Amino acid sequence: MTSAVSIAVRPIGAAVSNKSATAPAQTTQTAPQELREQSQQNLAIRQLKARDRAVRAHELAHTSVGGRYAGQANLTYQRGPDGIQYAIGGEVPIDISEVPGNPQATLDKMRVVRRAALAPVNPSATDRAVAAAAGAKAARAAAELAKLQAEERETRGVSVDLLV
Questions:
Q1: Burial state string for 80-119 with b = 16 or more CB within 10 A and e = fewer than 16
Q2: Does the structure show a pLDDT above 70 at 27?
Q3: Helices and strands in the chain: count of H runs, count of E runs
Q4: What does the domain layout of the chain look like in residue ranges?
């Protein structure tokens, strides 16, 4: 869920400091408007802070579980009405390539990649797609490994029979 908040930013207190003392009626009329604007800014800041925490936790889950296969998180920022940059999105690159000629290593790697993709509390559609791709590669590697192990057992069985 991505929520973007767009508010026209006016420096806090700017309207009050630009008012002259000879216009008390105008200041009184704008006070409720200033309170509404301040309330909207505070709401936007709270929402941006919450989104920032969620995004950082989501990406940290990928990187911490992905280990050596996960890269550094790349975050997308939005400047809040308070002038602070808040993370509103992100991505973590992850290596989903197979280990050439080593189905056991591929199987082990794809298990880590799958866990990393599904590590966040709420995996995105992209996260689920990466997990599915890693699962498919893991299944192929497991099948290849089983085939190699069967061939090895058969070869050992033939060798033993020939020696007897």
A1: bbeeeebbbbbbbebebebeeeebeebbebbebbbbbbbb
A2: no
A3: 4, 2
A4: 1-93, 96-164
Opening angle at CA 72, ends 141 and 117, nearest 5: 40
Look-up of token digits 């993709």: 117
- Name the residue type at position 3: S
Q: Residue 85's closest CA among 40, 49, 31, 127? A: 49
Identity of the amino acid at 12:
I
Stated pTM of the model? 0.71
Cα–Cα dist 95/106, whole Å: 11
Task: Say which residues have a Cβ less than 8 Å from residue 88's Cβ, sequence separation at least 6.
Answer: 2, 4, 48, 51, 52, 55, 76, 77, 78
Nearest residue to 103 via CA among 154, 137, 65: 137
